Amino acid sequence: MERVLTALMDLVVPPASMVMLAFAWPTLSFLRALEWALKALTKEDMRGKVVLVTGASSAIGEQVAYEYARRGANLVLVARREHRLFAVRENARALGAGHVLVVAADVVREDDCGRLVADTISYFGQLDHLVNTVSLGHDFLFEEAGDTAAFPHLMDINFWGNVYPTYAALPYLRQSHGRVVVNASVDTWLPMPRMSLYSAAKAAVVDFYETLRYEVKDEVGITVATHGWIGGEPGAGTGIGTSRFPLEEGAGAADQTQAQAQVQQWTKADTALPAPGGQAVEEYARAVVDGACRGDARVRRPGWYDVFHVFRAFAPDVLGWTFRLLLSTAPAPPTVAGTGRRALVVAPVGAPAAALPAPPVRPLIEYPAAVAGRRPAAAQLHKLE
Questions:
Q1: Which sequence positions are flagged as catalytic?
Q2: N or C: where does the chain have the smaller number of CB atoms within 10 Å of the terminal CB?
Q3: Quick one: CATH architecture of 45-232+278-302?
Q4: What is the pTM for the complete model shown?
Q5: Where are the domains of the chain?
Q6: What is the pLDDT of residues 334-364, one digit of tens each?
């Protein structure tokens, strides 16, 4: 009997749901427009508020910092490339930011995340928005990887690089009834070839925050932003157009020589192919900050990508056929001559990051003391904001 009931539900529920949705769509759209208008009228005033932005040295993180600066917020800029953060700080001040604190840290390290949050509380006394923008994409078929050494690093940056800062900041965000803003990607529900590991990591990020939303209830807001193809500065933070995996800042010459001598099997094209609905980084950053200040649970740009949710749920074969048709005519990516694989280009970096300022005497979050002169292990290469 149970098997018959399940088979009947499988047959009836999907088409019935589609019919109900078709009839309810106009009403739902009207209610959504009213909700948007109400939120726009009661948008959060960010003047004097404290916003912590990870991955703020370039791309999406940098532009998000500028959008908050235009709203008069106090900023905490976090990245490994401290020299880049100083330039971003000056630009943010020119745009209207209040106080701007620069913190050199690696968000993949839990102790760094505890320290940067404690420094924020020590300096400002509060935290209102945490914006996680760290991201690292790739452009190779799964079988082309050859060496699996970088697999954990992609997960570290794209998943743990969001989770650790959130874990450290959550007690303070509860106190201020603040908000976590997450930079995800359309690849979480519209997987694209050559981005298998990136898509998996971003899907984990979205599921984590959608679950966390119900755990924190109304005490802390969560805005999950997903983007499609974004044009602009190639590099970390966009998940698209990243052409190099830089060495950990502070790595010695021996580490750089060893990494450069490895078999070159990973690379990306220096430019991303244009795609329909592409947008500038500045546009996306503006939409993210606007949505966060309105209190939106989700921000999607471009919005028309949402239609693929329906196809994936009710007609996945159609989506699969479409991809096969489009990708069958796509040009083959460049490869390394004589290997058939794509090469990893290791970019040397500048001077080691400066030490963090001293933590408060009695921080609300306990964390281990920083180890002076700590040198990254060989397994911790390939990280960037």
A1: 198
A2: N
A3: 3-Layer(aba) Sandwich (3.40)
A4: 0.71
A5: 45-232+278-302
A6: 555 554 555 444 333 343 444 444 444 433 4
